[in-house]
Amino acid sequence: MSEAIVDVRGLTVEFSGPPPVRAVGGVDLTLVPGEVLALLGESGSGKSVTLRALMRLLPKRAAIGGTIRVDARDVRQMGAAELSAYRGSTIAMIFQEPGLAFDPVYSVGDQIAEAVVRHEGAAWAQGRRRALELFERVRIPSAARRLDSYPHEMSGGMRQRAMIALALSCRPKVLLADEPTTALDATVQIQILLLLRELQRELGLAVIFVTHDIGVATEIADRIAVMYAGRIVETGSCRAVIRACAHPYTQGLLASRAGQAFERGGRLQAIPGAPPDLSRLMPGCAFAPRCAKVRDACRSGLPAEIPVGAGHVARCILLAKEPAASLSSV
Amino acid sequence: MSTIRAVPRPKSEQDLVTTSLNLPATWLEEAGVLAAKMSEAVGSPALGLQDYRREVQMVFQDSYASLNPRLTVEDTIAFGPWVHGEGRQAAVARAHDLLHRVGLAPERFAGRYPHELSGGQRQRVNIARALALQPRLLILDEAVSALDKSVEAQVLNLLLDLKAEFGLTYMFISHDLNVVRFMSDRVMVMYLGKAVEVGPSDVILKDPRHPYTTALLASMPSMDPDNRTREAPLFGDPPNPIDPPPGCRFHTRCKFAAPVCSAREPGLGADLGDDLVHRVACHMADPSSGHPGAVAAMERA
To answer: Is A196 among the domain residues?
Structure first.
């Protein structure tokens, strides 16, 4: 296994109040070059905030704790100049709504060329050439003509392709994707997922892909990390998490989605209740109030990471009591 | 008597919301008595808007934007019956009863404002409000799309319970085929403002006949890590609805497109199935269309 390119230890993010909201409560993440990690979770689970912390895109009122190392550099210590060089050439991000991420008053080709000129000191013509190459790479039809389009002149799928081209324009090593297919039609979503998978493989990118959709995570990820209430509750290979998930929350999510769950005439297995209020988190496991297997001990301390298989860990105290061998692992 | 219809469609066709309030009468044939009334034009003297909306209620996608932030949950639900002539006390009693039925204890929730509720709770209030006038038809426009997955399952179960309890008919608009399969008896698949296929949901989801329906089903992400999707079923985006393609609106993205497809628009043809109506708007389903694929399709049948 090669050296980690992203190494996050004990990341916490707290938005100042009132009341203060602890959006991320201690996240550990590692990513090696060429690996795709899906961060799976519901709204408010802290997955997008984690991603933005990696780019230092959070507002000033967000207090960040822990260490964030990307490409052997300490992201939290970076000054303004270092940070703007870091963004784009080491790490880049694609967003859920490309219509909002592009500047509406410049053509898409110029926006890509500008990034190349700004980061690599290239000539304008060279920047435009790179933009054209990238447009062809992300398979935008009639690429040369489309460079002069404004964002509003493109369809949703094409805008997302252009967004990917912009993100790749300065040859980043890490690509962050924040629900990039959620706003797209089903038939367009699968095209974008396949394109991302192809580019990731060809360019050897490390990717963190945030999604709430288990199907999308299964399509794209090597590893899946499941987030709940600001913490990662389970991490493992895509196969292990889908086939042999260990945490009751992951089990509940899968039971309501996978396989034959949606047969007509049946009932869906729903997790009762709603995700907790992050400004009023109780001590102990955040999932305890909704968990069918809850015990008294769940409410007293934060559950530790317990190995349940090769490279597969979950934070649930019930797993400690049972011998690990009795759990199926992949 | 009570039938759920689901209408999957690309997200870009949200404009259906406005047209669906003027449903053609034929869509409502199973709703019994309602159908007789609905054969009148909505808004005509025989069927005034107020009467119509007592029978047909709607639940919207955005649970927050569709509630008045300055009304308590109780007032929101009681408002409709009160406007329609019910006494204040009776309307509030109805509101409490409905809150109870949608799984929100009235003693805890009746006095709350929308911002004091979670998304799932707000959508339960919206459902209770829609039921307050005892409608026969409920239009659910992406009513669960904005909810977290773990909460979505709760609300879908609730909708099925309420349907059985009140004998309701649902028109369920969704882009999530899993939800469509779970909820619906019949499905109408729409593309760029036109119905391309309509029929019993188990038939359409197992044996789709329109190339767009087939592609839509094949576009669902795989849930099997060892068997991921290799090739996207369709290339490109849906065309701009301001200037839809001539003939069949899907022909620009269809791999079976023949000259006839851009020349003539296919209608929803004759029934393909045995007893329940399964119709498809594709030249390939019509042997007389002149589409080269039509002959093969006929042989298959």
So the answer is: yes
Contact A156 B237 (CB under 8 A): yes
Same domain, A227 and A297: yes
Mean pLDDT of chain B: 81
Residue A138 has what pLDDT?
Answer: 92
In the structure encoding, which two tokens stand for residue A5, read together? 């390119």
**Which one, of A217, A245, A244, A221, lies nearest residue A233 by Cα?**
A245
Task: Give the number of domains in chain A.
Answer: 2
A178 with A246, same domain? yes
- Residue A123 counted as domain residue: yes
Candidates A194, A257, A264; nearest CB to B232: A194
Q: Select from A168, A172, A197, A192 the least CA-distant residue to A182.
A: A192
Name every chain B residue with its beta carbon within 8 A of the beta carbon of A267. Answer: 157, 160
Instruction: Find the residue in B nearest to A183 (Cα).
Output: B11
What would the pLDDT profile of B254-271 be if each residue is shown by its tens digit?
Answer: 999 999 999 999 988 766
Please name which of A200, A101, A91, A226 lies closest in space to residue A154, comparing C-alpha atoms: A101
Scanning B182-221 for CB atoms below 8 A from A yields 182-184, 201-202, 215-216, 219-221
Sign of CA dihedral A67, A68, A73, A74: negative
Residue A1 lies in a domain: no
Provide the 10 A C-beta neighbour count for residue B82.
18
Output the pLDDT for position B237. 84
Residue B116 pLDDT > 90, yes or no?
A: no
Locate A323 and state its tokens: 């011998």
Q: Residue A197 sits in which domain range?
A: 6-90+172-326
User: How many angstroms away from the CA of B254 is the closest CA of chain A?
Assistant: 12
Residues 203-222 of A with CB under 8 A from B: 212-216, 218-219
- Alpha-carbon distance of B78 to A201, in angstroms, equals 57
Asked if A16 has any chain B CB less than 8 Å from its own CB, the reply is no
Name the nearest CA neighbour of A68 among A56, A58, A80, A79. A56
Residues A250 and A293 both lie in one domain: yes
Q: Is residue A185 part of a domain?
A: yes
A-B contacts at Cβ under 8 angstroms: 132
- The domain boundary residue, chosen from A171, A196, A224: A171
Given the candidates 3.40.50.980, 3.30.1490.20, 3.30.50.10, 3.40.50.300, the CATH classification of the domain at B4-184 is 3.40.50.300
**pLDDT per residue as tens digits for the range B37-90:** 555 666 667 777 777 888 888 998 888 899 999 999 999 999 999 988 889 999
Low-confidence residues of chain A, pLDDT below 70? 1-2, 257-262, 264-265, 321-330
CATH number at residue A286: 3.40.50.300
The ranges assigned to domains in chain B are 4-184, 199-223+232-300
pLDDT tier, B7 (very low <50, low <70, confident <90, very high otherwise): low
CB contact under 8 A, B182 and A263: yes
pLDDT tens-digit map of B182-215: 888 889 999 988 889 988 888 898 899 999 999 9
Cα-based distances in Å from A73 to A16, A51, A65, A141, B235: 27, 17, 16, 39, 40
**Cβ-based contacts of A146 with chain B (< 8 Å):** none
Contacts of A213 in chain B (CB under 8 A): 221
Tell me: the pLDDT tens digits for B86-105? 899 999 999 999 998 888 88
Say what the pLDDT of residue B300 is.
57
Residues A134 and A147 in one domain: yes
Residues 6+ positions from A320 with CB-CB distance below 8 Å: A304, A306
